[in-house]
Structure formats: structure tokens, C-alpha cells
Amino acid sequence: MNRDSQRQTLPVNGGLTERRARSRAADVGPGLTTLGADNDPSGVATYTLAGAWFRYDLLWVCVLSYPSMIALQLISARVASITGKGLTDNMREHYAPVFFYFGVARFLIANSFNIAADILAMGVAVHAAVGGSVALLSLLCGAASLVLQWCVPYARYARVVQWLVLGMFGYVGVVLLLQLPWHTIAIRAFVPRIIWTKDYTTMLLALLGTTISPYLLFSQAEQEVEEREENGQSASSVRSDQELRRLRRDTALRTALSNGAALAIMIASAGVFELTRPTPGQPVRLDRVLEPFAHAFAPQVLGLALIGSALLALPPLAGSAAQAAASAFHWQRGERRNARIALLLVAITVTGIALAVTMTILRIDPVTALYWSALLNGMTMTPVLVLLVLLSSKRAAVGDLVAHWSLRMLCWLATIGAGAALVAHFIAEFV
Asked: Terminus-to-terminus CA distance in the chain, angstroms?
């Protein structure tokens, strides 16, 4: 998905030594790492609730959003490639401060809460296996993630951690084992069924928030900038046709893998809860979905998958927020900026750990916290998507190399869809 992040300097024995800041994922391409990072505990919980509460009615979100998700990622990489700057740096230069600072605040708030929910999920998963205090376990899990980000290159530990997310293939096993209404599933996957209720529009926003994942778009842009700096390429240089083909291929494959996993979770959840049919708002046990496949080991399989996906997702979450804050302070690229970003990454992760511990003390249901995290992403991403699409066609930023109209059209479809869902939610909430 992404390349291990920007360089930083760390004090060692009274001196300074150059190390990696590991604030984002490595460029490992489509695979288990992508599967875990793109489907963090917040995503797994949201997809499970969507299937349990609404059966097959929301499958179309993962299918119809696929082309737009590819387009958004390609545009993010394109803008960064042409300008030699990340998306937040570009927004600071080309938009009014109010829009730019909204985007920065959005990342700091939404990503911090997402980090907290994922850390809480890890604490609960470890508690289910060994017992103990969830607050203490969440603190230890958050600290372990921070140590990994600081001390070990992402690509190195991702190669180990990624095997924990193999449990997600259990959802595919459940889908194959159950007798499911495939005709209904096929129709619902391509033909939207809109229900004008508050619960439906809320879930729709949460699904969009965890499926599109704005932080991944900004990480994609930062990866592009770092690649060009490492390769000694100028901002005006253009990718070769071979590089463009590889970028499009990898983006299409990893998006298909991510959305395919989401579909499997939703279909499996709908099938497992077909008899009990919980209504929106009713509690749902996430591990129960895996019982037809893993039987008595379902809690352990899910727990390992959640821990692995959280460890893979936390670096890009913290890294994109740190990069946004660095742009707000107008820090110039270089070793001093990278050292500050590393400290910001630590501060953001520590904030997430503190929020996770606070939620355990307040006895907030972990599944609810994960769902709220996705909802917060969905409710705040529309303005950011608007700024991104406008930036891709802004000649002051990209000159004559504006994005192709087809890419911009797909991005506008996603942006308009997210905005319409937000408006529908507020209408259903207050009317």
C-alpha cells in the first residue's frame, strides 16, 4: 500500500543518527498487508454490523464505489507526482486557510479517534485470550504499536504481522459453507436499495467512511513524493508508461482485495444472523460470524485478525495526521521536519492510547466505538474529497497535466454520493 515513511533523526548516546520514522506502510503491493491495513478493526466491525442489521441491502456500496476508489487513489498520486508535494501542502498553497485548516483538524480528530478505537479493539482481543484489565491491555497494545513504528521498518514487521490477518479468509469460508440466496446477493450488489431511515443513512455514511478511507489517499500522495525524492526525480518529471501501468494495476488489485474482503464480511454476517435478524442498534457479537468456519476457535481467530489489522493500519493513520499537522506549520522538507514529524506521530499515537484507555474507563462498548470511528470518517470526508478533486484540475497546481475527465468524473461521483448521504442523514435525523 505505502512506503515506509520519512526519515528522522533520533538521539543515540548523546548524538544524532538517521533512522526511519515508520509513519506509514511500506510499498508492499497487493497482499495480506493491504488486506489488513485497508480493513482495520473499525472496518471489520462496521461491515459486520451492516450485514447483521441490513442483510444484503448495502452490498452495492462496496461494488459501485470500486471505480471511484481507484480514481481517487490515482488522482492523489498524480497530484503529488506533478507538484512534488503532498496533498496537505498543496491545499495550503492553493486554498483559503479556512479550508486548509479544516482539513488538518479533520485528520487530527478523525484519525486520533480511529487510532483509539483500533487500540481498544486490540485490548479487548488480548483480554478475550488471556483475561486481565482491558484498560491496561489497551495501554500495552498501544505502546507495542508505537515501539514497532519507532524501532522497526514497517516492511520488516509487516511481513510478520500480516500473517495474523489470515483469519479474515475465514469469512470467505463462512460464505462458502452457508446456503445463501445468491440471486438476491447479485441484485443487491449492483442495484442500490435505499431505505430513507436514520439508521440506514447513518450506516451508509459509516460504510463510505471506512471504505474510501481518506487517510489512505493522503498516504498515497506522501508515498509518491518520497519515492521521487529517493529516486532523485524533479517535480516536473513524468512517470513512464510502464510505471503508470504498474500503478494502475496495483491500485486496481489492492482495491479489489480490500472491497472483496468487505463484501465477504457483509455477506457472511447477513447469512449468520439471518435467523435472529438483529435490528439496528442491537448489540452484535463480531466473533459469532466466524463460528460456522472456526467453530469454538472463532473468538481467537477474530482476535488475531483484529490485532494484526490494527498493527498494520495504525502507522498510516498516525502518519497521515502527522503529515497534515506538519503542513499546517509550514515546515520545509528536510531532516529537521522529519524529526518533528516523528515526534508528532508519537504525540498522536499517545493521544489515541489515552482515548482508548478513557473509553474503557467509561465502559463504552468497543464495537460501538469502532462503528463511531467509521461514522466520524464518513461525516467529515466530503469537503476533503471536494478539495482533492478541484486540486487535480487546478492549473495553478498541476499546469497543463490536469487529470483525465474520466478520473475526475469518477471522483465527483464518489464525492457527490458522500455529500448526498450526509445530507440525507441530517434530514432523517431532524425531520
From this structure: 42
C-alpha cell belonging to residue 103: 482539513
Task: Give the span between the Cα atoms of 213 and 255, in whole angstroms.
Answer: 11
Task: Name the percent of the chain in helix, strand, coil, to the closest 5.
Answer: 75, 5, 20
Between strands 7-12 and 15-20, the pairing is antiparallel
d(CA 377, CA 65): 16
As given in the structure block, the three cell numbers for residue 408 are 475526475
The answer to whether residues 76 and 218 touch, using CB atoms and an 8 Å cutoff, is: yes
DSSP label of 30: S
The candidate with the shortest Cα–Cα distance to 122, out of 313, 371, 289, 290, is 313
Cα four-point dihedral sign 272, 278, 279, 281: negative
- What is the distance between the alpha carbons of residues 154 and 166, in angstroms, rounded to a whole number? 19
Amino acid of residue 221:
A
What is the rounded CA–CA span in Å between residue 79 and residue 101? 20
Residue 303 to residue 167: CA distance in whole angstroms: 9
Residues in the chain: 431
Q: What is the model's pLDDT at position 328?
A: 74
Helix (H) or strand (E) holding 9: strand 7-12
CA distance 426 to 191: 24
CA 14 – CA 53 distance, rounded (Å): 57
15 strand-pairing partners:
12
> What are the sequence ranges of the domains in the chain?
7-430
pLDDT of residue 24: 42
Q: What's the predicted TM-score (pTM) here?
A: 0.87
CA atoms within 13 A on the CB side of 383: 14
Identify the CATH assignment for 7-430 out of 1.10.8, 3.30.1380, 1.10.10, 1.20.1740.
1.20.1740
Q: Are 210 and 43 in contact (CB under 8 A)?
A: yes
pLDDT-derived band at 5 (thresholds 50, 70, 90) equals very low
**Which residue has 519507532 as its cell numbers?**
150
More confident: 170 or 248: 170
